[in-house]
Write a structure and sequence with these properties.
- The protein has one domain: P-loop containing nucleotide triphosphate hydrolases (Rossmann fold), CATH 3.40.50.300.
- Helix content is about 35%, strand content about 30%.
- It is built from seven helices and ten strands.
- The strands form two sheets. A six-stranded mixed beta sheet has the order 6-7-8-3-9-10. A four-stranded antiparallel beta sheet has the order 2-1-4-5, with helices on one face.
- Strand 9 and strand 10 form a beta hairpin.
- It starts with a strand and ends with a strand.
- Bound molecules: adenosine-5'-triphosphate and magnesium ion.
């Protein structure tokens, strides 16, 4: 599905250029369960943003389904992202003043699904994360773990082929973590959904089948 080769990314750091990703090579195939570990600031979120077509890179090649992502226009990139990729962001990125339902439905509004189908899909996703009773609550009134589960429901609602998750269990207790992993496993087995999960949580890393370590912007496949 995805082939990254020789990806470099620089950020401006005052007058200097900070080399945040160095010659990244990575393959993501249908059904892969991938973990990425590494210390704070080593570039994990930057890598997910590039994989998810939310950020650009400075050199190297990104091929998705045989197509070079460097050639896509902004609008084509958005369509690609909305139809294939789901995100669980590190800081959730939920709209606090809106309801749980609204937040989970957001990816469906962007992909222009019929409203009846929309309500059903949102309900299914909320059931999957055990939040069906909270759908009309404002996100700002939820706990951290509940917000994290809203973010997970939003990532799966559009049945993406790839889910990118940045510390998806950071705010979850052991039981909710276990439920999330079972949910991911179900999607993985049913739809061959691929996962790339940035995590410090041993329970999550153990669950993954392919492991990468990121060290100061370099990505190494663990043997
Ligand atoms: N928009 C930006 N502009 C400038 N520098 C940035 C930007 N985003 C990230 N950086 C820098 O790039 C480096 C990598 O950041 P990144 O967020 O990818 O780290 P991370 O591995 O996800 O860390 P954490 O585990 O703390 O979330 C850091 O040094 C960070 O300060
Ligand atoms: Mg990060």
């Amino acid at each position: 599905m995805i082939e990254l080769s020789g990806i470099d990314k620089f950020y401006a750091d005052g007058a200097e250029q900070k080399h945040v990703l160095k010659n990244i090579c990575m393959t993501v195939s249908e059904g892969d369960f991938i973990s990425v570990c590494g210390t704070s600031g080593c570039g994990k979120t930057t890598l997910l943003n590039i994989l998810g077509l939310l950020d650009t890179f400075d050199s190297g090649e990104y091929i998705f389904d045989g197509q070079s992502m460097a050639d896509l226009k902004e609008k084509e990139m958005t369509v690609f992202r909305n139809s294939h990729i789901g995100f669980v962001f590190q800081d959730f990125m939920l709209i606090q003043k809106e309801t749980v339902f609204f937040n989970v439905a957001l990816p469906l509004y962007f992909s222009k699904k019929a409203p009846e189908d929309l309500a059903m899909r949102v309900r299914d996703a909320l059931e999957d994360v055990g939040l069906e009773d909270l759908q009309y609550k404002k996100v700002s009134t939820l706990s951290g773990g509940q917000k994290q589960r809203v973010a997970i429901a939003r990532a799966i609602v559009n049945q993406p082929r790839l889910i990118l998750a940045d510390e998806p269990t950071g705010a979850l207790d052991a039981k909710s973590t276990e439920q999330m992993l079972r949910l991911f496993e179900r999607l993985n087995q049913r739809d061959r959904t691929a996962f790339v999960i940035v995590t410090h949580d041993p329970a999550v890393a153990d669950f993954c089948k392919i492991h990468y370590d990121m060290i100061d912007g370099q990505l190494c496949l663990r043997p």
